[in-house]
Write a structure and sequence with these properties.
Length: 171
């Protein structure tokens, strides 16, 4: 009897969609807090990378590209949520650090796929790569706004009112 209950419990646990990609995506989409969204992206990204690797092994580069495009969109959504709910990344880096790390992983995945796929599939993936790289650089700027050796943008010189020359006023 206990063996039957144990087997039923194991089947129920195996049937849970906790790590199912659709379930993870749904949870990610519903999350409104930027830090929690960035932390959920780690599990979701791992599931997406797994699906992308399977598609790449099967030479289904269209599916691999769609999965990585969705990953890019998820990174963008997490970044926007972080900027909205926790705008001071330097003071409160929670979430920003995780997102920057995950973005780096995503960049490596995209670069690996670009190398494996035929030429016609590459241009869209290069756009995904550029988008991820831009977001990664933005995250680094938000986390580290003051960089040693980098000069702040120069302010334009203050314009002073022109002094009138009495010699120019002669009628």
């Amino acid at each position: 009897m206990t063996a039957v209950l144990l087997a039923a419990a194991i089947l129920c646990m195996a049937a849970r969609p906790a790590d199912d990609l659709a379930h993870l995506q749904e949870r990610f989409d519903k999350e409104t807090d930027g830090v929690r969204k960035a932390k959920q992206l780690q599990k979701l990204g791992d599931a997406q990378f797994s699906q992308e690797r399977e598609a790449t092994k099967a030479n289904d580069f269209g599916t691999a590209a769609l999965v990585l495009e969705k990953y890019r969109d998820n990174v963008r959504a997490a970044l926007e949520a972080l900027k909205k709910t926790h705008p001071q990344a330097e003071r409160h880096p929670g979430g920003y650090k995780e997102l920057e790390f995950n973005t780096g992983l995503g960049l490596r995945e995209v670069r690996d796929v670009i190398l494996a796929m035929p030429e016609p599939y590459r241009p869209p993936m290069q756009i995904v790569e550029k988008d991820l790289l831009d977001m990664d650089m933005e995250l680094l700027r938000l986390l580290f706004p003051r960089r040693p050796g980098e000069q702040p943008p120069a302010e334009p010189p203050a314009s002073t009112p022109k002094k009138e020359n009495p010699a120019e006023k002669q009628p």
